[in-house]
Structure to design on (408 residues):
């Protein structure tokens, strides 16, 4: 037992690592907060408390509310993209396509999508937020498109293939929206099965 | 020019019609307000002023904020459904299908969708709003699905056809979301053209 004091422990962890861990805790707390309470209920103070970090430390990492929440959505989106690629380490194989499509749709049904949606909708009325979120949305959208093309083994040099994949991701976002107020899982599963069959045929 | 006093004019218009016209002005102002300012900026007072109606008259028609905004989204959705059916009075004809799909997607790119989206997202965090909006969403969604099936001439007795149409409407909602912060019209047109071709084939 004896125990190790906080000061002792802090000394053993390099400063840079501690700073990175604090940043990560703040980002994860910010996404959870946005998903649960929406933009109006999400401030730097609320997130700092949730993350167990002082308000000053939070502001050291993220000087403004906009900095914190756009960084948070981007961070979690990157984490999810990495996890998605890791699910299919072999990349595209025709027999995996339905599993890939289901996994792509899953990107839009969890807390990250809820959080992103709150940020998105708030940005449509707040001039301070709008350019940041527009830029973030386009960056994350491009990356998701790249992953989809890779994992589906889609040949974008063929006419229509690029738009086929884009339409799939638009449908996935629409399914995410349909899941916002109620659990739409059973219907979603049937729609995804049918669209996966259509896509499989269209992608050849 | 001589002119007719407001009192004279009021007397000639039956009271019931005036009441209906006031109600309609409030509903249209409520949707415009929600689309422009979001839920946080949308109150009964703001809408009453925009509609040129006294706050008391507004509250006579709509006792609560929730009453006003759910009624407004429902009213405008019905107007748009009627207009959509009127665009294709002949109903389903195979060569019209791409036009029907484009018109269905258009339902989700204007002020009504923006307004509905604000209400939807607000409802996900507000217990008072949530059951009302859930019920409204399901009613409007069912009606849109019926119109889509009719206008596309889709035979839902064939396996997969129901889910094909549902997926199309989910894609349309996703395209609406992608149009929230930027004008996504050019990309959307290409996606819709490609999916209209795929869906035309799938629906036979």
């Amino acid at each position: 037992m004896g125990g190790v004091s906080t000061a002792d422990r802090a000394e053993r962890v390099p400063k840079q690592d501690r700073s990175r861990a604090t940043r990560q805790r703040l980002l994860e707390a910010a996404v959870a907060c946005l998903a649960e309470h929406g933009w109006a209920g999400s401030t730097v103070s609320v997130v700092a408390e949730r993350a167990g970090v002082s308000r000053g430390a939070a502001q050291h990492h993220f000087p403004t509310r906009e900095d914190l929440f756009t960084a948070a959505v981007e961070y979690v989106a990157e984490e999810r993209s990495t996890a998605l690629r890791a699910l299919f380490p072999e990349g595209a194989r025709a027999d995996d396509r339905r599993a890939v499509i289901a996994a792509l749709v899953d990107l839009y049904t969890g807390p990250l999508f809820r959080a992103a949606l709150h940020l998105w909708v708030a940005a449509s009325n707040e001039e301070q937020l709008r350019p940041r979120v527009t830029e973030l949305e386009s960056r994350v959208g491009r990356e998701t498109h790249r992953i989809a093309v890779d994992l589906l083994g889609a040949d974008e040099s063929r006419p229509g293939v690029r738009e086929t994949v884009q339409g799939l991701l638009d449908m996935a976002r629409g399914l995410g929206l349909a899941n916002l107020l109620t659990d739409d899982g059973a219907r979603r599963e049937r729609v995804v099965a049918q669209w996966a069959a259509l896509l499989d045929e269209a992608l050849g």
In short: Chain B touches chain A through 47 residues (CB under 8 Å). Residues 65-203 of chain B form a domain with the Tetracycline Repressor; domain 2 fold (CATH 1.10.357).
